[in-house]
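Late entry, written up from scratch paper. The run itself happened at the end of the previous shift, but nothing got recorded in the book at the time, so transcribing now.
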Amino acid sequence: MKTDIILCGVGGQGILSIATIIGEAAMNENLYIKQAEVHGMSQRGGDVQSNLRISSEPIHSDLIALGSADVIISMEPMEALRYLPYLNKNGWIITSSAPFVNIPNYPDQEVIMADLQKLQNVIVIDIEKLAKENNIPRSANVILLGAAQKALGIEYHKLEDAIRRVFGRKGEAVVEANIKALALGRG
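Output as recorded:
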């Protein structure tokens, strides 16, 4: 078993929380895990990206090579396209449909969606809308994780258990909001 995951988005969107949940689930299964993070200018709404590698065999590098990522999970559609060169030919992109327009020359949203729809394995989901409609606005990132669950190859209940461990110290309400978000994303 080997899964190479690129998590990307903009600072403050919860990318590193997704990485923590996936990593917790993998470690609980006694899998090997390596993670490399690039924070960019995250405090100013800049690019945040994390390479997360999970395997049943030892992993020698924490970086994912061009053309070898199995999954790209993106909190922002333009960021999903930015990392497209890293995706393998059968890989999956799971992305939010909501743009985070933080630059003056942000590409046209219709062009971005058209580029995403040309790809073979893509899930585009409006996590912001789902989070607001379900009164869990701070859990939009976990909705995206729920949508990515099958592509990750991690059993659903193992992600639930990881959420309980990761957010347990924040109280039952936070845990339940994130469990609800995971279920919403799963569909």
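Helices lie at 15-28, 77-82, 109-117, 127-133, 140-152, 156-167, 172-186.
(Scratch paper discarded after transcription.)
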